[in-house]
From TrEMBL:
Protein name: TerD family protein
Domain TerD: 1-179
Pfam families with a match to the protein in the record: TerD (PF02342)
InterPro entries: Stress/Tellurium_Resist, TerD
Ranges that cross the membrane: none
Organism of origin: Actinomadura adrarensis
Length: 192
């Protein structure tokens, strides 16, 4: 059963019956709002949203990043399946797979961000979501609807943090502006 998260809400990633999740995927989906064209006809537009996963150590330093220009973390525990340039299609448009059991011990937080590489703001994006799925069962364990209409073109979606011996997910939903994750680092650091 999936949990719909609100900003700031935290959910444990413990499996029902005990034990922690070992392999999860973060999915990002979106649609572009059709623009009014000549003579009132709707015209489709392409919007390139990018999902990124930022790996932080216990001191809050950026240790690694996975995004469309680096599809794999240095240790191989985080893998981006590829860049979707338009948001076309149903379901997840971009996916980042995470092997939590292989995350190096010095990494304490994974922060997931989304930004509009093409620069359009979120008032032109609809049906945007981020979701966490147990990769071994395919079951969606948490979903965060990206409350979207606004003049921002990026959002700090969620973070997955070491929580004792396991992991937990916190929905962040902080708006930001920037075409790549590097522009978002000041906003991200406020949520570590």
């Amino acid at each position: 059963m999936s949990i719909s998260l609100q900003k700031g809400q935290k959910v444990s990633l413990e499996k029902p019956g005990g034990g922690g999740l070992s392999r999860v995927k973060m999915g990002l989906g979106w649609d572009a709002v059709a623009k009014k064209g000549l003579f009132g006809k709707s015209k489709a537009q392409s919007i390139d949203l990018d999902a990124s996963c930022l790996l932080f150590d216990g001191s809050g330093n950026l240790a690694d990043q996975v995004w469309f220009r680096q599809l794999r973390s240095k240790d191989g525990s985080v893998l981006h399946t590829g860049d979707n340039l338009t948001g076309e299609g149903e379901g997840d448009d971009e996916v980042i797979n995470v092997d939590l059991s292989s995350i190096p011990p010095n990494i304490s937080q994974l922060v997931f961000t989304v930004n509009s590489f093409t620069g359009q703001d979120f008032s032109q994006i609809e049906n945007a979501f981020c979701r966490l799925v147990d990769e071994t069962t395919g079951q969606e364990i948490a979903r965060y609807e990206l409350s979207g209409s606004g003049r921002h073109n990026a959002q700090i979606m969620a973070k997955v943090s070491r929580d004792g011996q396991g992991w937990s997910m916190t929905a962040i939903g902080a708006t930001a502006n920037g075409r790549t994750f590097q522009h978002l680092l000041p906003t991200v650091s406020a949520h570590l």
